Structure formats: structure tokens, C-alpha cells
Amino acid sequence: MKYSVFSLIRDGLSGARRLPPILQHSDPKKKYGIIVIGAGGHGLACAHYLTRNHNINDIAVLDSGWIGGGNTGRNTSIVRSDYLLSASFELKNFSLQLWKTLSQELNYNVMYSPRGYIDLAHSDGELENFICRANAMTLAGARAEILSPEEIEYLEPTINLRAKTRFPVCGALYQPDGGLVRHDAVAWGFARSASNAGVDIVQNCAVSGFGIRDSRVIWVETDKGRILCDKVLISAAGQSASLARIAGFELPVEMINVQAFVSEPVKPVLKRVVNYNAGLSYISQTDKGELVMGGASDGYPSFARRGSFARIEDTVVRAMEIFPFVSKLRLMRHWSGTADIPMDGNAIVGQTPIRNLYMNCGWGYAGFKATPAVGWTMAELIATGRVPDLLRPFSLDRFEEGALIDDSGIGPYPWLH
Ligand SMILES: Cc1cc2nc3c(=O)[nH]c(=O)nc-3n(C[C@H](O)[C@H](O)[C@H](O)COP(=O)(O)OP(=O)(O)OC[C@H]3O[C@@H](n4cnc5c(N)ncnc54)[C@H](O)[C@@H]3O)c2cc1C
User: Fold this and answer.
1) CA of 388 to the centre of ligand 1 (A)
2) How far is CA 362 from CA 270, 343, 345, in A?
3) Rg (alpha carbons) of the chain, rounded to whole number
4) Residue 393 CB–ligand 1 contact under 6 Å
5) Prediction pTM value
């Protein structure tokens, strides 16, 4: 069914009785050409582009929970491509291009809002680093600007840069094309499109084992029985390392707890997304008026999906330094997700040591923005067997070869990236 203003009026008048179910199927068949483990944005995007770009629909997407119930439905929905290293920049910038037309492509409003992303610098050294990034982005064809404190205040009049704070703001890197996309709409938009094209999306169906013969995957064990397959993609974020271990190989990935929360809704006070870099506290305002805030990880490996008062306090204190009105707001909801972070802080996407078993993981708290680009390129890899140029740097082999992609130059401390 195609959504349009006319169908909206018709279905509204008929009490939505004619609306068909969004998903076509729920029980798995005995065999598929391709099984995708994980109905998050990445897994669903891959299924969508397999059907759209490669005309393949003998696919099942299996999830232990529900569509978008992992990090896809828990993130703060920021999209941007302001990265220094070309591997990171190219993939995320390709994503930014895809976001622009995704609502039309899926016939599902993903609410892409290119409202701009302001990254605050708190020292001359940090500003120099931002200038370097802005130059690299401009040379690669993206829009990037360096802002003075006065220009930041002009763009965001409610910001307070004059208070004597511990981490004064001396400028910012501004990406006008960065912004927000509605995260659960992304999951449901991809799911609906893939399902309409014949993909089976099976919820409450955890994968717990793999059948491997001659170093090749031939079936997966699930809650709903054994399913034969030709190819498998693991796209299970926080559970990737566990699934890899079951399949017989290790990933250089650690799991951390990442939190976010929203305030009660207020009238528009903040247009863009603002990131306070000293200690990390990022803030944006939803269309409903809530202020969404996120902070750094807990700082140690964890599978816990719960918040900690220390991290909330830490994040809110920083937000209040630049937006004093935050002190008057009440927090309304708070949640967290299990983020998977490799030793260099960048994703692992591509082939595994098991033939026809592919891996997409390690996106930590930066993978939402890459959703369409990962789906597009993974679909190409799985369909053709050729590694797309955009994915080449993200292979698992890089940890053996030393070709790391360490955007922040921190080294092997995943929870600091
Ligand atoms: C609090 C928070 C804020 C964030 N903010 C941002 C942001 O602003 N911008 C940004 O770009 N990124 C952000 N991220 C990161 C982003 O959310 C993730 O990188 C991205 O959503 C990963 O998508 P995914 O599809 O790979 O994983 P997920 O959405 O987590 O999907 C994985 C799925 O696999 C399923 N699964 C797991 N194990 C199994 C199994 N054994 N069998 C079957 N299914 C299984 C899970 O149920 C889940 O649905 C944030 C993350 C968090 C936690």
C-alpha cells in the first residue's frame, strides 16, 4: 500500500479499517538464500537494498526481540559526517546523501531534518583539530565551517558562552547538513519496504547456533527450529561478539552501556544539535519539544541496560553550563543500549573467517548515521561477493595488518572512543 495524503484522508474517514498489516509474514520457512540476524536499522536496510538493488528476496531477517528494539530504537538519532579519516568520512557522507531521499524511496516519512550539527571546541588545540577536520571535509566535497563564539551565539541565541566555566568554548566545527532522523521510523520504513518485496521478518526468534561444514555456514539454530541457508549476515550490535564466539572466532570488540534521556516538552528553544565536547554532552530538541541529551559511556565494559545517576548528573551539568534553562526542566524518560566498540573505535564490516558468514558490528554509539550506507554496501557485498570500496577499510583483517581506523587517535581503549 502506498501512503499519500489521499490514502491518509480515506483511511482516516474509514476508521483505518482498510489498512493492511505492515508486515506480511511471521513464521520462518525451512530454508532461505540469505539470513540476516538482527532486525535493527542495519539488518533491515541490508534486506531492503538486497531487494531493491539486486532483486534478491529469498531472505529472512530474524530478531530475538522486536523490530528496532536494539540500539536503533534507543539512539539519539544524530546524523553527520564530520570525520577526519577518509574511511569514516566517505561511508558516513554517502549515508548523508541517502538520508536526503530515503522518505521518498521508502514511501515512509523518516523525518530527516538537516538542521545542522555544532561541535564545540574547548581549547586552542581542539579548535586546531576541528580546522583540520573542516578542511578535510571541504576538500572531499562536504560543507563544513569553523564558527567563532559570536557566530555560535548568533545561530543559537539561547546558548550561554559567557559564563566562567571550567571548559570555556573557543569556537566550533559546524556541519550544516548534519541533523536528526526519526530512528524508529527508519527501522519500520526499511522493514515495511523489505516485507513488501517478499522478505520474511521474524520477531521473537533468537539465533543460538550455526551449522558449519568445511568452513562454510549452512544453517542457523533458532528458537523456531533449524533454518538452512546459503549466506548469513550477523548484524546484532551488542550481541555480535557472543554470536561470533558461537561461530568459532573472536572479535576485538567490547560492550559498553550508553545512556540517553529526554526532558519534558517545552516550546522551541534549540534549533540545531549541539555537542559539548569536554566530557561529552550532546543536546537537541525533538519536534514534540523534548530536549534529548546523551553523554559518554559508563567507562567500563558492561552488558547492563540501565542508567546510572553519576552519568546523568555528569551529562546534565555540562548541558547546563551552556544552556542554563536546562536546570528548570524535569527529566521524563531515560534509557540505555549495549554499544559494541572495537579496539580502534571503528566498525567491522565484511567477511568473517567462516565462508558466506558476514559481519556488521562495532558501531558503538555512532552507527545510526551510517544505517542506509551500511545496508547498501553490505547488500552489494553479499549479493556479488565483491567488497565495495567504501567497505574495504572496515575489514576484520585490519587488526592483524595494523591498518586501524582510529578517528580520535586514542588507541586501544574502546570505552574512550
Ligand atoms: C544511547 C545511545 C545513543 C546513540 N546515539 C547515536 C546517535 O545519535 N547517532 C548515531 O549515529 N548513532 C548513535 N548510537 C549508535 C546506534 O544506535 C547504533 O550504532 C546503531 O543503531 C546500530 O544499529 P544496528 O542495526 O547494527 O543494531 P541494533 O539496532 O542494536 O540491532 C541489532 C538487533 O539484533 C538483535 N539480536 C541480538 N542478538 C540476536 C540473536 N542472537 N538472534 C537474533 N537477533 C539478535 C537485537 O534484538 C537487535 O534488534 C547510539 C546508541 C545508543 C545506545
Assistant:
1) 23
2) 31, 9, 7
3) 21
4) no
5) 0.97
| Structural element, H or E, at residue 260 | strand 253-263
103 Cβ inside 6 Å of ligand 1:
no
Go through the chain and tell me how many residues it has. Answer: 417
- Please identify, by atom number, the ligand 1 atom nearest to the C-alpha of residue 41: 25
108 lines ligand 1 (CB under 6 A): no
For ligand 1, whether the C-beta of 178 sits within 6 Å is: no
CB 364 within 8 A of CB 333: no
337 close to ligand 1 (CB < 6 Angstrom): yes
- The finding on whether 190 has its CB within 6 A of some atom of ligand 1 is no
Please tell me what DSSP assigns to residue 301: B
Domains, the chain, in order of start with CATH, read 5-16+24-77+183-252+344-416 (3.50.50.60), 117-176+255-342 (3.30.9.10)
Query: What string of pLDDT tens digits covers the 417 residues of the chain?
Result: 788 899 889 888 988 887 888 887 778 999 999 999 999 999 999 999 999 999 999 999 999 999 999 999 999 999 999 999 999 999 999 999 999 999 999 999 999 999 999 999 999 999 999 999 999 999 999 999 999 999 999 999 999 998 777 899 999 999 999 999 999 999 999 999 999 999 999 999 999 999 999 999 999 999 999 999 999 999 999 999 999 999 999 999 999 999 999 999 999 999 999 999 988 899 999 999 999 999 998 888 999 888 888 899 999 999 999 999 999 999 999 999 999 999 999 999 999 999 999 999 999 999 999 999 999 999 999 999 999 999 999 999 999 999 999 988 888 888 777
